[in-house]
Amino acid sequence: MTSSKDIRWKQRFENFERSYKRLNKYASGSITNELERAGIIHFFEMTFELAWKVLKDYLEKEGFIVDSPRQAIKQAFQMGLIDDDHIWMEALEKRNMTVHTYDEETAKELTEDIVTSFLPAVRTLYRTLSEEW
Q1: What CATH number should be reported for the domain holding residue 110?
Q2: Which residues constitute the domain of residue 72?
Q3: In this structure, what DSSP letter does residue 83 have?
Q4: 69: Cβ–Cβ under 8 A, 6 or more apart, which residues?
Q5: pLDDT tens by residue, 7-46
Q6: How many folded domains does the chain comprise?
Q7: What is the end-to-end Cα distance of the chain in Å, rounded?
């Protein structure tokens, strides 16, 4: 019998999957102008939000209580769902920063972080959760 928590995490995973695939697609190409950087940052924000929420739903399905992105990251790391909690905490910090700050230099730095650090971490989570599907 399928529980509502099982259904919820799978529905959230489908949304996460769509967002991750967009981020992966566009971050894999050349990012040369302000509009492209803004798009990558936006896809990152959406994907990160869905990533921590799918972790929350998955962990709750497993019997854990998760009230924040930090708790979700810490518990996911302890369970082996993510490899590097430091990268995820940095991604959380940067995601929070993007909501309040925008200038060209910050956008360039963040885009580089997304492509080189955060996207590979999200890719690993995607593959891990795909196996759970």
Answers
A1: 1.20.120.330
A2: 4-132
A3: S
A4: 52, 92
A5: 888 899 999 999 999 999 999 989 999 899 999 999 999 9
A6: 1
A7: 15
